[in-house]
Amino acid sequence: MNTVGLSDQAIPLTIIIPVWNGEDYIGRCLESLKRQTVPITSAQVIVVDNGSTDSTPHIVKEFEFVELWHQPVPGSYSARNLGLEKAKAEFVLFTDADCVAAPDWLERALHLASFARDLDIFAGQIKLFREPDAGKVIAKFEELTAFNQASNVSYGFAVTANLLCHKGTLLKFGAFDGNLLSGGDVETTKRLVSNGCRLKYEPELLVSHPTRAGLLSMLRKQRRVTGGKWALGTEKGQGLLALLRQDLAEALKRARWMIREPMPATMKMGIISVLFVLALTSQLEMLRLAVGANPYRN
User: Fold this and answer.
1) How many other CB atoms are there within 10 angstroms of residue 99's CB atom?
2) Whole-number mean pLDDT of the chain?
């Protein structure tokens, strides 16, 4: 473990980043933290490695301001829970290993934390950027569907790619469900809101996130997300047919919405095709899980 030797009183905020086999992007994420408008030593920075088999831990160790912890239990939510255990600050700020923080991200988070109350949750903006090898259709699909934090908040949830909250409140209401491999941030923030927390969208609290490189990476994500839906649904006593119908209804609702979006006809056809393939993948993944297969982890 790396440690920066900060006293508990000196830490107003803890940044928590889970990572698994992230050698291609964790360095970029941590470099963005080095370039903040306030010293990164103003915060405790925790990276929780989730059993990487690549060079991720070695890359993280190159950043002296980072505390590196190891969580062998699979799943980013188990990793985040370990980060919570190790956090010394009153407020915790979550992001993902493939995100890039805006230069004033920490400064704005510190400002929000300075007047926030225990039940306040701040969901920051997640701006997508296109990697050089990302296809246009996939990039547009992600732009329309992925990480729309403003929309998320309007529905009473948020994702942990950019989330600031009170550590004690999060622990009080059960932290993250460590059994989930996907969807745990949605489940957790909904649970917090149902217990009286105030969820607010903060567009100036900004990180950037890459779009998926291609259809294969989207299919992998879809299988993982479906596993999270399956776990949450079965915990609530929902059966296979109910979950299949619910999943299909969501896909049809999204298709109707996309058809109304203003864009060239060829782009619209491509996006609807992607949606169809993802919906089929989700249905097949649920059938696989129904016969006892393990949830997919990409």
Assistant:
1) 23
2) 91
